[in-house]
Design goal:
The chain has about 160 residues and is of the alpha+beta class. It has two domains: about 1-75, Nucleic acid-binding proteins (OB fold (Dihydrolipoamide Acetyltransferase, E2P)), CATH 2.40.50.140; about 85-160, no CATH class. The chain has helices at about 35-45, 80-85, 100-105, 140-150, and strands spanning about 1-15, 15-25, 30-35, 50-60, 70-75, 90, 110-115, 115-120, 130, 155-160. A five-stranded mixed barrel has the order 1-2-3-5-4. A hairpin with a 4-residue loop joins strand 2 (about 15-25) and strand 3. The chain is elongated and about 65 Å long. The two termini are about 15 Å apart.
Length: about 160
């Protein structure tokens, strides 16, 4: 499993058909990942430069150039990776938030396979964690994080892995 930001995308025609070569940068280096056409066709909308990509695949010896070859078996954009590998979306909120306001903000981000939402509150100086029901699972996007911070004053909004 590896992840990074896509810094380059190119297509190549081979004997096995069309493949996509994606350059991923994780700030420690850049690696090229081969994505065969079947996988590319399923996820073609996520292969854009400057976007996050998580790859699950195989590493093998590249006999052509003497290095290593990485072949993708699964790929995820950031939102899908958060849902796939995250356990919950947590945040600190004031005890005075209106439940209706919280519901209004979460509503557009509800996702039946999303992450459960946990609220850390401190009523009368006693720290508590409230877990919202499964009906309020969300797709944890950056837009949701910003909405929670802006409209609810939520702090430390983060996905727990």
């Amino acid at each position: 499993m590896l992840c990074g930001v896509i810094t380059g995308v190119r297509t190549q025609l081979t004997q096995r058909g069309k493949i996509l070569i994606v350059a991923l940068d994780d700030k420690s280096g850049v690696v090229e990942v081969t994505i065969y056409n079947e996988l590319f066709e399923q996820h073609k909308n996520i292969f854009r430069e400057d976007e996050f990509l998580l790859v699950v695949g195989k590493v093998s010896e590249d006999r052509f150039n003497g290095g290593l070859r990485i072949t993708a078996e699964k790929v995820f954009d950031i939102a899908t990776a958060r849902i796939q590998y995250g356990h919950k979306l947590e945040m600190d909120v004031a005890c005075t938030i209106a439940p209706a306001k919280l519901a209004e903000i979460l509503q557009p981000y509800r996702h039946e396979n999303g992450l459960p939402v946990s609220l850390r509150v401190t009523p009368q100086g006693i720290p508590c964690t409230l877990q919202l029901g499964d009906a309020w699972r969300v797709a944890p996007s950056d837009e949701l994080k910003y909405a929670l911070e802006l409209h609810l004053g939520a702090k430390e909004v983060a996905v727990e892995y």
